[in-house]
Amino acid sequence: IKPWSQSDDNEKTNPKNGLLLNALHDTAFDNGLITLNKNFKIILSSNLHQNLDHATNTFFKQYEGRTISLPDKFIPDKQFIEYHNDMIFKR
Hints:
By secondary structure, the chain is mostly helical. It is built from five helices and two strands, in the order ααββααα. It has a two-stranded antiparallel sheet with strand order 1-2. The protein is globular and about 40 Å long.
């Protein structure tokens, strides 16, 4: 969630600083095109809203506002999500 390049050693190895995403959504997350809110709902960047073509609708728009499936252990830490929202996400 918080990039390794900006994390200390404890944050890098913290299992709560990670999300299990497919390659497409992982890349979008790393590039600030999608994020999560404090309730683990998916938020799309305005950059994606400006490109509402078929692919965007198919791979992103349909998930907007949906809550991610949370793991049984190591639920993503909201501190890392807040960092992503403040520093990475492109509103």
